[in-house]
């Protein structure tokens, strides 16, 4: 249902749908109906003709011999990975019959589970939302990634807005805060390099001596979850040395007196102690921030995966207003640009199909608890059917032991729509083959820039794959849903998604359209907060009985002397994987080699561990076996378990999430992957 005739030989304009701030424009070369090359579109300024290693190997992934080709039905015990091939007709009819039976009893026993496999507006929540709304299924709180930081921005700046990524190339100081840009934001890194060549100073704040930290002038290797303490100490230095823009503060901010009072309690020595770094580094950072014109912060989500993640973002987001950095287009801060996009959700998702029903919402980061119904009757009905698309929860959700226990329930009916036989697909009752970006229509914005991009299909679906939207159309039909919205095709869904404010004809013609956004959004205040100011103090938080000011909120799991689990573990992305996607692409896995944990020389020596040894990383939640890499990338007291490997490729069939917890952040109901204490022990010498 694509409304398009595919050309056998063509160069087709598309977009990269992966969960990454860069959202590249793609050009796919098709020869004899086969995609032979995927490249970055040189005409798109943010892509500039360059792709990351992962996506430039997209044809390898698309035509992988491991690609799922047909619908599969479970034939062995749950989790055994034993399936038989069935027809689409049989699969759709049986799934619809099962869902009808469950819905007749209690529609909230049905739960969708999806996230960032494909960020496109059509292949993520368009037809799927309509389908689940019509059923009255439980709603899913899609907060596994960015919602703590997102809330932090909303309460401070008024939305997910910030600097335009291209103007970082004009900055004179760039603070790369909680981001390994070389890994996760390569097109921003090009801007930072340009700035560096023009004399900018680059400072990285990251517990790990990452690939990016290595290339910056200064690296502050702080203890995980201590970013707010650092931000407050910078504020205090700004006050003490009078590096403030009093005019900007007076005209465009709210609550400075209260914030200053809190900041004054953060002496250099207090912050240095909490952050585990030298006072002189904080002093230098504060001076650079306070005295450089065109000073910019590239904040990323790595620093908000801890208990106080949202408050930390709030504290950091106050810094540009204090020095008036927003006055220049090359100054300010960027965490996310996504509030610029106004997706037409009312028509796309059709919440009206719920009628007067108000189903409960389950948090995707507590899936382990949800599936095991630990809340009992108070949580409503036990989940009886789970439909997974665009996600691999068995690998990526925290505390996998609980997640696996839930998926293994014989009375849970699970459908997984996938490209590959992932850890999650192993637990399915039905596995349905889905199309990749080269095979379907979509349209999408970005969280790193402000262009809307269109994706045209380049090739016919591989095997019997169908797009997510087509699968939900078929299911809707089989369920007897006859509203016209269930037969809207994908190209029409693209039009519906962008609404009337974007010129869809221009998208069809060029493949991308830039939104009209100001160069320096907050040069004259105009923050989209209730007060119109940058809100150091938030009435909205006060009204919820919460602290109206940002604060340093220590981690749930703070290292203390004599603890059984003395090491803090963070699990940031490996460069050649995207969360758990691409782990099965052989040429990429060859670069990452095998699951490992980076450990400092001092922590390794104390445990008799050398590089290449097999170790176990463990706490009360479980244990994860991998190789040790004794490395200067790890600071003492912190180990880095790079993610996110498929469990079945792990040495003991687990991955880093075996030890992470299901606790949630201060605001935004987000997970705390990097707030996790462990011990590491030697299992076997290399
Ligand atoms: N290649 C690749 N690119 C990706 C991804 C991927 O998996 N692989 N993931 C994508 C996704 S889903 C997202 S959400 C984005 C952003 O993803 P992010 O999670 O922001 O990823 P990074 O920028 O790689 O890493 C964040 C950095 O934060 C550091 N960090 C960890 N804890 C703390 C802390 O407490 N404080 C500070 N200051 N730093 C900390 C980590 O060591 C890491 O270097 O990237 C996307 N891009
Ligand atoms: N320990 C630890 N855990 C983490 C993180 C961490 O830093 N540390 N990061 C967290 C973050 S930031 C995020 S965003 C989540 C990401 O978690 P997920 O959103 O689950 O991302 P992926 O692991 O990439 O899995 C996406 C799956 O969707 C499939 N897919 C892609 N496109 C399509 C499609 O069009 N249709 C269908 N049906 N399937 C498709 C892919 O094949 C892939 O298996 O993980 C989180 N988990
Ligand atoms: Mo993410």
Could you describe the 3D structure shown?
With 686 residues, this protein is α/β, with parallel strands linked by helices. Helix content is 29%, strand content 18%. The protein has 23 helices and 27 strands. Strand 18 (442-444) and strand 19 form a beta hairpin. Helix 8 packs across helix 12. The longest helix is centred in the N-terminal third of the chain and has 19 residues, at 88-106. The protein is globular and about 70 Å long. The model has no long low-confidence stretch (mean pLDDT 96). Residues 19, 116, 145 line the site of molybdenum atom.
Sum up the structure in keywords.
686 residues, alpha/beta, binds molybdenum atom, 6-stranded mixed β-barrel, binds ligand MGD, 27 strands, single chain, 23 helices, 29% helix
Helix content: 25-40%
Radius of gyration: 25 Å
Measured distance between first and last alpha carbons? 54 Å
Bound molecules: ligand MGD, molybdenum atom
Q: Based on Cα principal axes, name the global outline.
A: globular
- The computed structural class is alpha/beta
Spatial order of the strands forming the largest sheet? 5-4-17-16-15-6
| Strand segment count | 27
Give the percentage of residues in beta strands: 15-25%
Helix count equals 23
Point out poorly predicted stretches: none
| Arithmetic mean of pLDDT | 96
Q: Strand count, sense and closure of the main sheet?
A: 6 strands, mixed
């Amino acid at each position: 249902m694509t409304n398009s005739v595919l050309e056998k030989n063509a160069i087709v304009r598309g977009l990269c749908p992966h969960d990454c701030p860069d959202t590249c424009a793609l050009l796919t070369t098709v020869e004899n109906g086969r995609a032979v090359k995927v490249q970055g579109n040189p005409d798109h300024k943010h892509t500039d003709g360059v792709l990351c290693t992962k996506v430039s190997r997209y044809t390898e992934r698309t035509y992988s011999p491991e690609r799922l080709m047909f619908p599969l039905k479970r034939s062995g015990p749950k989790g055994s990975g034993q399936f038989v091939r069935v027809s689409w007709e049989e699969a759709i009819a049986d799934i619809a019959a099962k869902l009808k039976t469950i819905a007749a009893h209690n529609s909230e026993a049905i739960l969708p589970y999806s996230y960032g496999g494909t960020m496109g507006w059509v292949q993520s929540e368009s037809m799927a939302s309509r389908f689940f709304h019509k059923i009255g299924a439980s709603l899913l709180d899609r907060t596994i990634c960015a919602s703590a930081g997102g809330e932090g921005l909303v309460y401070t700046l008024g939305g997910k807005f910030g600097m335009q990524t291209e103007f970082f190339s004009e900055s004179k100081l760039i603070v790369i805060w909680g981001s390994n840009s070389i890994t996760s934001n390569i097109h921003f890194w090009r801007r930072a390099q340009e700035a560096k060549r023009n004399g900018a100073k680059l400072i990285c704040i990251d517990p790990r001596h990452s690939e990016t930290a290595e290339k910056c002038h200064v690296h502050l290797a702080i203890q995980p979850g201590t970013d707010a303490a650092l931000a407050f100490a910078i504020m205090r230095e700004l006050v003490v040395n009078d590096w403030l823009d009093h005019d900007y503060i007076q005209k465009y901010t709210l609550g400075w007196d209260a914030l200053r009072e809190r900041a004054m309690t953060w002496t250099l020595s207090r912050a240095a102690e909490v952050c585990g770094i030298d006072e002189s580094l904080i002093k230098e950072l504060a001076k650079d921030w306070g005295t450089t014109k065109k000073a910019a912060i590239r904040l990323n989500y790595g620093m908000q995966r801890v208990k106080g993640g949202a408050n930390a973002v709030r504290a950091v987001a106050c810094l540009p207003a204090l020095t008036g950095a927003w006055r220049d287009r090359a100054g300010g801060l960027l965490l996310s640009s996504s509030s610029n996009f106004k997706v037409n959700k009312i028509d796309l998702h059709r919440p009206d199909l719920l009628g007067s029903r108000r189903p409960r919402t389950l948090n995707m980061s507590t899936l382990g608890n949800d599936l095991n119904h630990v809340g009992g009757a108070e949580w409503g009905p036990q989940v009886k059917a789970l439909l997974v698309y665009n996600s691999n929860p068995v690998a990526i959700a925290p505390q996998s032991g609980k997640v696996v226990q839930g998926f293994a329930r014989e009375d849970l009916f699970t459908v997984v729509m996938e490209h590959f036989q992932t850890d999650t697909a192993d637990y399915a009752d039905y596995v349905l083959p889905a199309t990749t970006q080269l095979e379907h229509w979509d349209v999408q914005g970005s969280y790193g820039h402000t262009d809307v991009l269109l994706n045209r299909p380049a090739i016919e679906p591989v095997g019997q794959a169908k797009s997510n939207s087509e699968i939900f159309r078929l299911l809707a039909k089989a369920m007897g849903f006859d509203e016209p919205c269930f037969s809207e095709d994908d190209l029409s869904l693209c039009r519906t998604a962008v609404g009337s404010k974007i010129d869809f004809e221009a998208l069809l013609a060029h493949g991308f359209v830039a939104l009209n956004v100001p160069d320096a959004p907050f040069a004259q205040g105009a923050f989209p907060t209730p007060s119109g100011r940058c809100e150091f103090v938030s009435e909205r938080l006060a009204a919820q009985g919460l602290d109206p000011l940002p604060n340093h909120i220590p981690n749930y799991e703070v290292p203390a002397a004599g603890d059984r689990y003395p090491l803090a573990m963070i699990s940031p992305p490996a460069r050649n994987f995207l969360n758990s996607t691409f782990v099965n692409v052989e040429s990429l896995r060859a670069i990452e080699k095998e699951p490992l944990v980076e450990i400092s020389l001092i922590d390794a020596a104390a445990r008799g561990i050398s590089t290449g040894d097999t170790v176990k990383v463990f706490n009360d939640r479980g244990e994860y076996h991998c190789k040790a890499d004794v490395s200067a990338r790890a600071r003492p007291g912190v180990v880095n378990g790079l993610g996110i490997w498929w469990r079945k490729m792990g040495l003991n069939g687990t991955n880093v999430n075996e030890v992470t917890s299901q606790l949630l952040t201060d605001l935004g109901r987000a997970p705390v992957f990097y707030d996790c204490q462990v011990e590491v022990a030697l299992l076997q010498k290399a």
